């Protein structure tokens, strides 16, 4: 049957034309098309890879920042701690110094008061003795104007005085 | 599909044979669907567009005939049309013969050759314009025809070539793409009314299959041939028997490619023409209510078949090439292991790993 017996002429033309078509398409169609497709896919892939890398870098940067922040926070805490201790220490020493100073002043004041008191007391004693003497003298002057009274006084003194 | 084809032949030729003696006088005018369908499906030296009461509208092509000893003769096929004879030539059922019975080689531009030239031009124009699109818009999204055809190119590359051939697929991409789009475009063009049935012609499909065979053989490696002449994994006494079987399979593959494409496309055409012929067989316009929906259904189905057959042909081509390039590491290891067993036929069956294989 003519349907299933290949015609020689058509076979010849088919071979010739198909090979020409193949060469034409291979050179002018498939090569640029496949090349461009590959190029585009490569560029997409590299863009994706770059995005991934950027993400990674971003993450690293973020992690670095966080570490820096944590370090700074720690440093601040440490500094504050230090400052507090130092301030406390300083206050303590200041307090101790002030206390000793105050004690010293009080001591000096006491001593001065004591000295003053002693001097005052001595002066009071002297003044009292002087006053007593003056009073005694004046009394005596008036009493002894009478000679009997003088004799009586001398006698009373003499009696008081024991001769031993 | 082949069965369907022959059944259809019986269906539409038998009633005609049965009718002819009964009708008698009408036989000259009687509609012979088998003849009409074959005429539409087969190649021709003229392009018969349509016929009216005023005559046939036909384009005639040049006939190029080569006679050994007499040389070339070129003339219009009009001169041998409708049973006329010219010089030494005449057409017998579209087959160019000589009056004196000497041999002649027919290189005529037939309907199929004309269709082939036109479809090739279409392919070149379409794909060079697509390629221009890529050059003009480097690194940009595809547009228009380019964006329509790009998925097919990518599909052939990723799903057919990469998966079937492997890492060396790039060398075979131009051939696979040409085959795919050639078959697809010609299948579609063959579906247009009045067009030639190019991919349903056995010469065309045979030539494509032979090219696939040649490409396969040229890309074959040692493992491919050792698999044919010394099949690994088979008992030694069976190996000589396997040689003709394996050799036959080398040639059966392209033959199956030839017949699959040819039969599928031709069968589709025959079915559509058969539904249309029903109208003329029953001589009633009411048959159109049956023929039109069925014909439309088959036509739409043929649209699917046209890309499916292109895909199958391309996929099988890629698989044959991939099979010829494959390294049979596992099988070779087995062969060595068997030889070390002293070639015992049954000994290896006790080994669980071989038995499982």
From TrEMBL, chain A:
Residue ranges of the TM segments: 12-30
Gene Ontology annotations for the cellular component aspect, listed alphabetically: endomembrane system; plasma membrane; proton-transporting ATP synthase complex
One of its Pfam families is ATP-synt_B
Listed A to Z, the keywords are: ATP synthesis, Cell membrane, CF(0), Coiled coil, Hydrogen ion transport, Ion transport, Membrane, Transmembrane, Transmembrane helix, Transport
- MF terms in GO: proton-transporting ATP synthase activity, rotational mechanism; proton-transporting ATPase activity, rotational mechanism
Family annotation (InterPro entries): ATP_synth_B-like_membr_sf (IPR028987), ATP_synth_b/b'su_bac/chlpt (IPR002146), ATP_synth_F0_bsu_bac (IPR005864), ATP_synthase_B_chain (IPR050059)
* Compartmental location: Cell membrane; Endomembrane system
Q: What is its main location?
A: membrane
How is this protein positioned relative to the membrane?
Single-pass membrane protein
Which regions form coiled coils?
37-89
Q: Known HAMAP family for this protein?
A: ATP_synth_b_bprime
Q: Which family does it belong to?
A: Belongs to the ATPase B chain family.
**Description of how the protein assembles with itself and partners:** F-type ATPases have 2 components, F(1) - the catalytic core - and F(0) - the membrane proton channel. F(1) has five subunits: alpha(3), beta(3), gamma(1), delta(1), epsilon(1). F(0) has three main subunits: a(1), b(2) and c(10-14). The alpha and beta chains form an alternating ring which encloses part of the gamma chain. F(1) is attached to F(0) by a central stalk formed by the gamma and epsilon chains, while a peripheral stalk is formed by the delta and b chains.
Its biological function? Answer: F(1)F(0) ATP synthase produces ATP from ADP in the presence of a proton or sodium gradient. F-type ATPases consist of two structural domains, F(1) containing the extramembraneous catalytic core and F(0) containing the membrane proton channel, linked together by a central stalk and a peripheral stalk. During catalysis, ATP synthesis in the catalytic domain of F(1) is coupled via a rotary mechanism of the central stalk subunits to proton translocation. Component of the F(0) channel, it forms part of the peripheral stalk, linking F(1) to F(0). The b'-subunit is a diverged and duplicated form of b found in plants and photosynthetic bacteria.
The name under which this protein is listed is: ATP synthase subunit b
The protein's organism comes out as: Hymenobacter nivis
Automatic annotation (TrEMBL), chain B:
Signal peptide range: 1-18
Q: Name one GO cellular component term.
A: plasma membrane
Q: Which Gene3D superfamilies match?
A: ATP synthase, F0 complex, subunit A
Query: What are the protein's UniProt keywords?
Result: ATP synthesis, Cell membrane, CF(0), Hydrogen ion transport, Ion transport, Membrane, Signal, Transmembrane, Transmembrane helix, Transport
Checking InterPro entries in the record gives: ATP_synth_F0_asu, ATP_synth_F0_asu_AS, ATP_synth_F0_asu_bact/mt, F0_ATP_A_sf
Q: Report the subcellular localization.
A: Cell membrane; Membrane
Q: Where do transmembrane segments lie in this chain?
A: 113-131, 172-192, 198-218, 261-282, 294-321
The protein's matches in Pfam families, at most eight in alphabetical order, are given as:
ATP-synt_A (PF00119)
Q: How does it sit in the membrane?
A: Multi-pass membrane protein
What GO terms are given for molecular function? Answer: proton-transporting ATP synthase activity, rotational mechanism
The answer on whether this UniProt entry bears the keyword DNA repair reads: no
Q: Which PANTHER family match?
A: ATP SYNTHASE SUBUNIT A (PTHR11410:SF0)
| Function of the molecule | Key component of the proton channel; it plays a direct role in the translocation of protons across the membrane.
Regarding protein family, the annotation reads: Belongs to the ATPase A chain family.
Concerning NCBIfam families, the annotation shows:
ATP_synt_6_or_A
Q: What is this protein called?
A: ATP synthase subunit a
